[in-house]
Automatic annotation (TrEMBL):
Any Pfam family hit: F-box-like
Domain F-box: 1-45
Name of the featured protein: F-box domain-containing protein
Amino acid sequence: MSLSKLPVECLNKILNFLDKENLYKCLLVNRYYCRITVPLIWRDPFVKHVSISISCSLISTLIACLEGDDILSLIPSTLSFYTKPTLFDYGAFIRKINHDCFAEHVKTLLEFSGGNSNPNIRVQKFIDAIYQMIIQKSSILQEFEVNITHRSCVNLPRASTFTNYEPGFKNLKSLTIFNLDLIIDEARLQNTTEFLNIISQNCNCIDNFELWIKSFNSAFANQYLDIIKTQPLKKLLIYLDNPGNVPFNLGLEHRSETLKELTLDSIDFQQFDLSFISKLECLENLEFLYCKGFSHCKDLSRTKLRLKEFKLWYCSTGMFMGEIIKYFCSASLLKLTLSNVNPRAARAVKEICPNINFLCIRFHSRIFTDSIIPLICELSSLRVLNVGSNFGIDMSPLVKNLADHLVFVEYLYFDFNVDLQSFIYFTNNCKAVLKKWIITLDNSSSSKEYLLYVNKFQKVHNSLKAFGIKKYGYSLMNEETEVIDILKDQGIDLIASDEMDFLFH
């Protein structure tokens, strides 16, 4: 069956896997492909770091989609733009709006077209008109991101823009907020407050909320909490640049039956009762990033959580990492990410999490590595192991220790510089049946020697399917290409640099 005979829904899903560059090629195939591809290209048009010509073309096209009163509201500004009738109603295809990027594209067009009288007012008029057109025509708008920068002067549209048309924002599923704390102008404060109130009052299906703010001591604290309380969130990320006073439980008791993923970034839990997390019955993924104040975890009783994934990343846990693992984790855990691991934590993992198949660990020093490695290597369910360290730490003893104890792992990632001697020891002594393997080298190391020993490893084990070298500015030399060909003859593919981190995260 040719692709043109496939149902539209099937072809749409296939084309969804293509990037914009390849989607543009599909436009030229035929009319059938064009009609399906255009909505995919326009689902997220407001992106960063594009050329002036692309910015101007994007906004000019949207201006050409305006009708009636919207066009009249921009006269005489629109007289300087030549706009011919569009083939499609492009505003109806937009699924995601990044407000800050949208504003920058409009500014670029107006600056490029000349006319500097009241630039802020002109930009705002254009944005209001285009917003109204998108909200009026699009029934599939699902994602909204607002990011206030120090130089940003563009206000959000009036509240009525989002409520005068159906469905408006009612189908919004994802909301991301950055730096609204930077707003100090009274009129903009009022406008933004009204916008946030609309979100909690009119929306009813937001399941992803990312909140990046300085603290909860801001003018919009109540609005943030109302969004958390009223929306059926499945995924929530909160980053606090300056923790200050945090609400008792962030309103998360209202999300006990919906929330599946929770990420808390840069929060001080000293005055924060973590026990409320035990009430999140559906929680599957919990992440603490760069947090502190966990000392009271030693006094908490075990939770009834059934987490599948847990991440404790560069947090100041002191000696309480083991208690934290015991408090939040259980036999249901499948994926675990830790930094600065100590033996007590490793023993807790072995005791509490016997079924994990993915482990990512970062060592801040070589202390404890000799006692930790044997413990994690005893996890019979472990299939993916990602090991890293802070810069400058000699990890050669750890590599040799892994060679002596590793048995069950199939995917292995050395995310630190591996010296040749310890690598040779590993290839000669490792008993694990590795299928995918990535190592990291500094620029002074010759990759050819490592590849030759990989070849020897494969002759013994005949298990490797893929191998990769992570090296800054790395490109294959002729002598390395010859060894790569030998590896390919043995069934080993070379992993591209852009796939390495993806495979092990």
